[in-house]
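Lecture notes, unit on binding sites. The following record was shown on slide 14. It pairs a sequence with pyrrole-2-carboxylate.
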Amino acid sequence: MNAPLQRVQVIDSHTGGEPTRTVISGGPDLGGGTVAEQLVVFRETQDAFRRAVVNEPRGNDVIVGALLVPPSDPTCTAGMIFFNNVGYLGMCGHGTLGVIITLGHLGRIQPGPLSLETPAGMVQAHWEGGHRASLTNVPAYLKAQDVTVEVPGLGEVTGDVAWGGNWFFLVTRHGEELSRANIPRLLEVSGNIRQAVNAQGHPEVDHVELFGPPQSGGNSRNFVLCPGGAYDRSPCGTGTSAKLASLATRGLLEPGTPWVQESIIGSTFTASYTWLDREAGTLLPRLSGTAHVCAEATLLLDTADPFCWGII
Ligand code: PYC
């Protein structure tokens, strides 16, 4: 007799074009504890589930998964573990906005404030009702300013290493045009930059963010290379937070002043910050953006399927 199918209920949303697949039931029991502890169990014992949800044939390289888990802090509405085609994210800004809009769609939250627990820490958020939500991210900071690396085919490239919930290398002077037509070239260039940054003293960096002039009335346009080789269709919440850390530390943006970050496809996040500890250079980024639900689905996991656990 065939083994019964495992049914996994998901809601797909997109935040400024960047997809989030939220697992609302049928996921693994990770045994409780903090969300950081549950991530360890997920990674060590249930990694096949990650692949089954976001990799082909059910998913693709762009989708970020969000597993809802019990929070350890009773004041939190939910815990969230974000994952992608190659692993796990400490935090995800677009994903958090997607989860909030999904929870609203399910009737599990009312407009107003809510707290969410992630492996990188607590996130305070606010659902406006409808499609707009905002969040105060985990603390961001600039780790290393003006790091110069030698990139094969490009020469010397200088950027900042910053944390915004994930690690970023932020580059303003790169000589590339930030347009959709140029995306294949931007993927190649940013991939080469990441390799050079990793090899030259910063193995933690897994996202590369290129900046250019605004094209839709914002302050700046970006292109963000994600860990699994896809580019972020949204302006990247953690990347925008890292950018705020860079601007704030350089004295280029005052606390509370809005910074409108455009993505490579023209979607926007509005961001600002307050200092958490000015001496230590840590700040609290606040981000606001819109997300839309676009599918309710049941994934079927059939262990007789040779690609049940995703194409690696
Ligand atoms: O919005 O933080 C973000 C994010 C990280 C990777 C893709 N999006």
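Take-home: The CA atoms of residues 93 and 237 lie 4 Å apart.
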